[in-house]
Amino acid sequence: MYYNVLNFAAATNFDERYDVALETNTMGALRVLSFAKKCVKINIFSMSQLLMCVAKGRSGVITEKPFYMGESLNGTCKLDITAEKKLVEEKLNQLRQENANEEAVTSIMKDLGIERTIDSVIIGYGQGKLKCLPVNPDAIFDLIPADMAVDTMLMVMVVNANQLCSADSILIHHVGSSVRNPIKFSNLHKFSYCYFTKNPYIDRNGKAVQISKGTVLTSWAKFQRYMAIRYLLPLKGLKLMNSVFCLRYKNICINSDRKIKFVLRLAELYKPYLFFNSTFDDSNTEKLRMKIRESGLEKDAIIGFDPKCINWEDYILNIHIPGLVKYAIKY
């Protein structure tokens, strides 16, 4: 079996069920990789992956180097995908036991997908649900528009097809912004506040939600203290009252306990990203850009993939958040 080029790219759609997206984006990549291993004369294998997802827990400059079979980023053999698959299976089993119809399953799976992305922070903030956030304001978010990642993959194939680089080399290309055009959480916070102040979320009662700048907790310890004082201690008092007054406040206790556990779980999920302390070296990608310019192929590029050209304020205010509003919040 012979293929000159095998290319795989995946993107998450906010209008898609999380279980479907997981099966396509993650398991799909595994299947394509397994297929590529059988192509003994394959020239190029091109696949995209979210940088912050695979590098959480690391610090410093992350270089563009391949990882080999059995090698992991955090020194363990544990795969986060196992936990993700288990989460989805448990949720689907719960819905089946509750005899949920297909419409309800689809809606809940879409909501779960939103919850499992960093954009749920922006959505929760815009809806007035997020009053505080544990985060390092100077943390750099390695953001990149999906079309730039795809265009880089296309250019990698073009450069190799034109033999502009060694056929024997194994190159990892980081397509990110953290080195050449970094955006900090403080910037993202400011842009989100600006957008939802001018374009407030309209709730089910037709009222505009007024947001504040919220409380930024700059360390995990501060977040734990905040939750303990503001929510966990009052909940213990409520549970005590509930036992004294013959379970009069049972439903309130159950709902409050569920909401607090959800917030703590979500915060734990985002902790590696909100306190992320790394940047991604993109020397190989910059060399690729130089080869494209020198060869004259740049004029044929459909989009371009230099992060320096991104105006983050314009992108977040006029493209990214409006896209979330249209496809995730839908108001």
From TrEMBL:
<keyword id="KW-0521">NADP</keyword>
<comment type="similarity">
    <text>Belongs to the fatty acyl-CoA reductase family.</text>
</comment>
<dbReference type="InterPro" id="IPR026055">
    <property type="entry name" value="FAR"/>
</dbReference>
<keyword id="KW-0175">Coiled coil</keyword>
<dbReference type="InterPro" id="IPR013120">
    <property type="entry name" value="FAR_NAD-bd"/>
</dbReference>
<dbReference type="Pfam" id="PF03015">
    <property type="entry name" value="Sterile"/>
</dbReference>
<feature type="coiled-coil region">
    <location>
        <begin position="78"/>
        <end position="105"/>
    </location>
</feature>
<feature type="domain" description="Fatty acyl-CoA reductase C-terminal">
    <location>
        <begin position="231"/>
        <end position="330"/>
    </location>
</feature>
<protein>
    <recommendedName>
        <fullName>Fatty acyl-CoA reductase</fullName>
        <ecNumber>1.2.1.84</ecNumber>
    </recommendedName>
</protein>
<keyword id="KW-0560">Oxidoreductase</keyword>
<dbReference type="GO" id="GO:0080019">
    <property type="term" value="F:alcohol-forming very long-chain fatty acyl-CoA reductase activity"/>
</dbReference>
<dbReference type="Pfam" id="PF07993">
    <property type="entry name" value="NAD_binding_4"/>
</dbReference>
<dbReference type="GO" id="GO:0010345">
    <property type="term" value="P:suberin biosynthetic process"/>
</dbReference>
<keyword id="KW-0444">Lipid biosynthesis</keyword>
<dbReference type="InterPro" id="IPR033640">
    <property type="entry name" value="FAR_C"/>
</dbReference>
<comment type="function">
    <text>Catalyzes the reduction of fatty acyl-CoA to fatty alcohols.</text>
</comment>
<dbReference type="GO" id="GO:0102965">
    <property type="term" value="F:alcohol-forming long-chain fatty acyl-CoA reductase activity"/>
</dbReference>
<keyword id="KW-0443">Lipid metabolism</keyword>
<feature type="domain" description="Thioester reductase (TE)">
    <location>
        <begin position="5"/>
        <end position="91"/>
    </location>
</feature>
<dbReference type="GO" id="GO:0035336">
    <property type="term" value="P:long-chain fatty-acyl-CoA metabolic process"/>
</dbReference>
